[in-house]
Structures are given as C-alpha cells and as structure tokens.
Amino acid sequence: MKKLVVILAILLPFFVSAQNANYQISSYLSEGIKAPNTYHIGDAWLNFLVEADNNFNQNITQATFRANSTLDWHKHATTQIIIVVEGVGYYQEKGKEPIIIKKGDVVNCKKDTEHWHTASAKSSVSYIAIYGNQPTIWTEKLTQNYYDSVALKLEGE
C-alpha cells in the first residue's frame, strides 16, 4: 500500500490540469487515438499520457477497450503497473487462472511475465499502464474462442 501511495504521489502532477502552454499537460479523461487492430480484436484507444525520456524512464499510457475486445498475450522487459480507472476487464498471467479486474484495482505484473488484459464481455474497461521504455514483446494471439471461454468461466456467459 505504501508503494501505491508513493507512486500516486509521484504521478499526481502529471494528471493535474492547467491552462498554461508552458506546462506539459495531458488528460486521462480523453480516449486518445483509435488503435489499429494489430494485436487485438475489437475497438481500442490509446492515450499516451507520458512518454519515457532521459529524466523519467517510464511510459504512462491509458488504454480503453470496448466490451468483448481481446488483447494478445505479451510481456514487458520491466514491471508493468495497471491501474483500472473505469469499467470491468479480465487479466491473466500464463499458467494462472484468469481474474476479473475492476475500477480501483491495481495490478502489479512482474517483468518478463507473459500476460494479457482487456475488457470483459459485458463492460468496457479503461486503465492506466505504467511500464519501462522497452518495446512490448507480443508472444501469442489470444483467440476469440479462448476469450469467450474465459468470459463463460468468469461471468457465466
């Protein structure tokens, strides 16, 4: 819990809005740009809130997935923190059972852990992802059939 408070205290200035062009301000209230369907099925938007640089070697990206969308299996060379800010989604690490994630949940995915995360079958989800400045490693396609089996298991649909 202490780590979460420290992370939020560090990140809070990035989310405060201002009316001055002399500041670099972004808003997680915007959906961002529609993502091409390269590593997912369905509708998704990406909002690049903070991009890593020499002073801060982390990316902070908001992702929004519409209900019944998939995201392929992938991993990161650094830990990824996922903060769910709206809706309900699914999260699964390779070799573990899938779980439901919802608004207010914070997921700590350790580096090099193969996983996927996306919206639930019934609800869109929006989350803020914090991760290092290395490219995402896409490992395996998440099929619609597998996603549907997860939805059935978790929600009975």
UniProtKB/TrEMBL annotation:
Any Pfam family the entry gives: Cupin_2
Alphabetic keyword roster: Signal
Signal peptide residue numbers: 1-18
Domain Cupin type-2, chain residue ranges per copy: 68-131
Name of protein: Cupin domain protein
Species, as recorded: Algibacter luteus
